[in-house]
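Saturday, quiet lab. Running sequence design on the structure tokens for the scaffold JK sent over.
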């Protein structure tokens, strides 16, 4: 949402305060120009002119058409439909048979007819919601505007109709009799039925039990006929010391713009058309929750971008498990207060979709991805449909606990202003052979390529190159030592530059020469280094001269060297000013992250925390870092967190939301690109892909949530051929046997990766880095050589080749096909299987196609 959108102050919203009653009957909304506007009676607008009709979409008007799609609108309900000409499939925004759903009831029933849902907060910070069907369509508060290649649908949620609170709870006998004197007998009777005299107090008391339906309407009309105003209501409230406020109408305005663009429908919610009451901050917006939803009688799957990707099959019966819900690009560390050591995979790509037989759509979140959450659920819970959709955070909220007179009270605190973005989804429709997750991945890869979302694809002669061998070496760590019984922190060298040369030489002797080396823990006091505003190479591993010598050695040996840096986390240090440089939480505190206690599976608050650096500070740090980095002529840099994490900074009057944080990260990556050095990074969020040459710790699995049925290499199918990647280091992974690791590398087209130190493993004991429990290179180098040789023998034939097709042949058996026609079938089972006359032995693989 752009910066002109309304300010919602950091909301310590105090409740139970009497407010003056003034103004008109119209609702006051916070508008895009930061002023209060009065929303008058919603106008229904002019009927749309139909350009065409289609018998398959009854009661709908065709308003846009191109070579690929037809787009139709139902003016009564606001629902839309898209006909994909190539496949003949009709995709509805809302299930066409929703009225017959026997499972859905109440609000769940009404939401099946909604295109948008808004969740907002009251003064207590409690969540309420309105949807476009119950709170707009049912009140005839929907209208349509033709726009180029489509239509804009405008909604007003809620009404400004008067309620019982527009009448005083008590009114003096004198003022009551004065009202009656102004009315005819019919209206007098209406008031007499809803007010009862308290003769002792000489007042008339409102009888709320009588204020129902027609009786309420008649009483409100009587007050109107008597000329009763809001000013008079204020007089009665004050005169009778009433704990009553005139409720502000909960009116919200929002629009959806639908346009056809080639083979896609683009649905956009413009930020400048979202308005809401200042007293009811808007939390989240859900868009087209049931677009393309599959019924309980259909076969198909929901695609979610969980880690490498996952499928949730329609009607899988897993109704006892929670719905799928994950934020795009992982959690915001300034908002995350999870104490448990959760082992979930992040969403790296802002996509989702639905697969049916011979038809599919891929949803691409084009605007607002950093504020998005992907949601999915199956039939049999609240309704009879299987659905997947995005929701967007408009304003973040967190509760603050205050102590007053020995009592604790929780009050809400809100983000200063809404997210600086529109919310846009592209629905791309696929048919025939492309209606598969492989087709979705190919479409998204092409989409990114055409929109500069991927680096330039490298070409290599088949069979002429080996795949890279990824290696991370740890230079030094900080460890507590003792002198005369007094503890102190000192650097523990684990791999000096000279020792690193020895490891490289030993690998080369084993014919591993295509090495991509990430060197971590080399400057500013070890692995968890201090803020990188300057570079001071650690003397414990060789100092500045040692680094320069090693960089020259790497260049002479054709080793790709990537010294590792972290710019989004600070482990204190004399140059770090947490008051100025740490990001702030919604509470206003510096954002911290405590180390994990692996044994307990929780954050250890007895240890020193790290601080989350403000995105703006991180951007400046990168600029300073690059100036010093050039001195070492390494040719590459490793980014530990810049492509992996996306945080906000809720500093008062200097808010940086996740949308703006993404842009700052891109600016940093642009600076690195301009410097001409290669970039290896962890994670690989979508917005970072154009700037990366290599990805470490790429998602090689889904989170394996109970609701999911299959994990798929969607991420790999998108990036392979453009960016080299590898998963977790084998020696620190969960694999207990080398065979599944090799099979996974072949199935997912991933390279081999190890993480080592030169010193014995006991050197990391009793340190902050005790997770490095099996890293001494001598224990692994022979096995690493064997693994690399086996994987390289196959994957060197498809170096820089994209994955064009992937499918599950049977439980534990998968087929991966590459751009040049080579295919690999892997069998994870402990017994042999046969396909197309070929036997794949237990825990083994076969190849075919281009080089068979």
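Result came back. Writing it out in full:
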């Amino acid at each position: 949402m752009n910066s002109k959108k309304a300010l919602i102050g950091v909301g310590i919203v105090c409740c139970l305060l009497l407010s003056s009653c003034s103004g008109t009957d119209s609702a006051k909304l916070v508008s895009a120009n930061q002023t209060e506007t009065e929303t008058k009676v919603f106008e229904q607008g002019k009927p749309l002119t139909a350009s065409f009709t289609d018998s398959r979409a009854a009661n709908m008007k065709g308003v846009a058409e191109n070579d690929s799609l037809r787009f139709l609108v139902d003016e009564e309900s606001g629902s839309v439909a898209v006909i994909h000409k190539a496949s003949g499939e009709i995709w509805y925004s809302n299930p066409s048979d929703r009225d017959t759903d026997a499972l859905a009831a109440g609000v769940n029933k009404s939401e099946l007819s909604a295109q948008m849902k808004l969740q907002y907060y009251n003064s207590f910070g409690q969540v309420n919601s309105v949807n476009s069907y119950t709170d707009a369509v049912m009140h005839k508060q929907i209208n349509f505007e033709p726009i180029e290649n489509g239509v804009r649908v405008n909604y007003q949620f809620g009404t400004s109709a008067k309620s019982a609170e527009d009448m005083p709870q008590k009114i003096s006998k004198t003022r009551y009799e004065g009202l009656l004197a102004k009315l005819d007998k019919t209206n007098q009777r209406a008031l007499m039925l809803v007010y009862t005299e308290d003769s002792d107090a000489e007042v008339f008391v409102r009888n709320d039990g009588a204020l129902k339906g027609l009786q309420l309407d008649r009483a409100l009309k009587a007050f109107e006929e008597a000329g009763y105003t809001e000013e008079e209501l204020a007089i009665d409230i004050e005169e009778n010391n009433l704990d009553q406020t005139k409720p502000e109408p909960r009116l919200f305005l929002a629009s959806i713009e639908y346009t056809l663009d080639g083979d896609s429908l683009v649905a956009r919610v413009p930020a400048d058309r979202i308005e809401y009451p200042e007293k009811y901050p808007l939390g989240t917006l859900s868009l087209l929750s049931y677009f393309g939803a599959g019924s309980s009688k259909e076969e198909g799957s929901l695609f979610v971008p969980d880690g490498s990707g996952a499928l949730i099959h329609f009607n899988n019966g897993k109704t006892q498990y929670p719905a799928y819900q994950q934020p795009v690009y992982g959690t915001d560390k300034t908002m995350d207060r999870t104490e448990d050591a959760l082992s979930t995979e992040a969403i790296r790509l802002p996509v989702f979709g639905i697969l049916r037989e011979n038809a599919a759509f891929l949803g691409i979140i084009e605007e607002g991805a950093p504020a998005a959450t992907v949601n999915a659920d199956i039939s049999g819970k609240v309704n009879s449909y299987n659905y997947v959709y995005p929701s967007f955070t408009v304003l973040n909220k967190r509760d603050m606990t205050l102590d007053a007179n020995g009592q604790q009270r929780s009050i809400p605190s809100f983000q200063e202003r809404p997210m600086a973005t529109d919310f846009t989804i592209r629905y791309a429709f696929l048919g025939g052979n492309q209606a598969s997750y492989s087709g979705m991945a190919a479409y998204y890869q092409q989409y990114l390529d055409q929109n500069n979302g991927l680096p330039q694809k490298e070409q290599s002669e088949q069979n002429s190159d080996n795949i890279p061998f990824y290696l991370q070496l740890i230079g030094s760590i900080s460890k507590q030592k003792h002198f005369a019984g007094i503890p102190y922190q000192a650097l523990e060298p684990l791999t000096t530059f000279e020792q690193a040369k020895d490891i490289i030489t030993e690998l080369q002797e084993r014919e591993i020469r295509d090495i991509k080396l990430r060197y971590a823990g080399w400057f500013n006091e070890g692995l968890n280094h201090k803020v990188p505003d300057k570079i001071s190479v650690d003397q414990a591993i060789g100092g500045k001269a040692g680094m320069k010598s090693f960089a020259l050695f790497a260049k002479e040996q054709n080793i790709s060297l990537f010294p590792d840096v972290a710019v989004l986390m600070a482990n204190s240090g004399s140059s770090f000013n947490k008051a100025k440089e740490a990001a702030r939480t919604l509470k206003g505190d510096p954002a911290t992250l405590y180390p994990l206690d692996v044994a307990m599976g929780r954050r250890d608050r007895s240890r020193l925390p790290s601080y989350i650096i403000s995105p703006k500070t991180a951007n400046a740090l990168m600029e300073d870092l690059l100036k010093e980095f050039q001195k070492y002529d390494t040719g590459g840099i490793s980014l530990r967190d810049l492509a992996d994490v996306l945080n906000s900074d809720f500093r008062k009057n200097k808010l940086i939301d996740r949308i703006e944080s993404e842009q700052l990260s891109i600016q940093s990556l642009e600076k690195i690109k301009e410097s001409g050095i290669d970039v290896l990074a962890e994670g690989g969020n979508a917005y970072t892909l154009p700037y990366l040459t290599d990805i470490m710790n790429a998602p090689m699995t889904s989170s394996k949530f109970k609701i999911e049925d299959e994990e798929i290499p969607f991420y790999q199918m998108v990036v392979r051929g453009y960016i080299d990647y590898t998963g977790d280091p084998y020696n620190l992974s969960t694999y207990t046997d080398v065979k599944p690791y090799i099979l996974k590398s072949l199935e997912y087209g991933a390279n081999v990766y190890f993480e080592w130190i030169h010193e014995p493993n006991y050197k990391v004991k009793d340190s902050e880095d005790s997770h490095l429990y099996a890293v001494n290179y001598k224990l692994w180098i022979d096995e690493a050589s064997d693994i690399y040789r086996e994987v390289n023998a196959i994957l060197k034939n498809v170096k820089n080749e994209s994955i064009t097709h992937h499918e599950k042949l049977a439980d534990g058996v998968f087929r991966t096909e590459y751009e040049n026609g080579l295919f690999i079938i892997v069998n994870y089972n402990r017994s042999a299987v046969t396909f197309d006359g070929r036997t794949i032995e237990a825990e083994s693989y076969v190849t075919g196609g281009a080089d068979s």
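Notes for JK: The longest helix spans residues 658-675. The chain has 14 helices and 49 strands. Ask whether to fix the surface positions before the next round.
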